[in-house]
Amino acid sequence: MIKLNELRLGNLITWNPALVNPKITLTALMVEIAEIRIDTIGYGSSRMEHRVEPFEDDLIQLEPIFKSLEEFEPVKLSAKLLEAAGFQKHKQGWVKALIELGGEDHEFVISLAGKKLPVEKITTLHQLQNIYFALFGYELDFVA
Questions:
Q1: Under a CB-based contact definition with an 8 Å cutoff, are residues 127 and 107 in contact?
Q2: pLDDT for 131-143, tens place per residue?
């Protein structure tokens, strides 16, 4: 389960209704947080398609969908996600700008003036998004 105080608007997490009811057969879905309340999270699609003109068969949800906090789980970091975020594979880790993620536990390191300053272990996508935003002041972009 995700702790509410770890989340920000724009974080990507997984909505998985089977966490609350194992009999549900809906597939887990990566979503983008649009609103945070005390016990619910409002989300939208993380890859929402925007069109100039709507089509009759469009099923685009404009308002956030709210689900209980218990239905969400973090997205574990993977090589595919790191590549999509612009990190490049080097020796024993991943690098982007001043950030290095090393080892299987993705130990987070900031490199400043040639010195490496370990910060914390990053295991989930929303943690990486939050630290990136805190360091650079803008969102971590993903390529499709």
A1: no
A2: 889 888 999 988 7
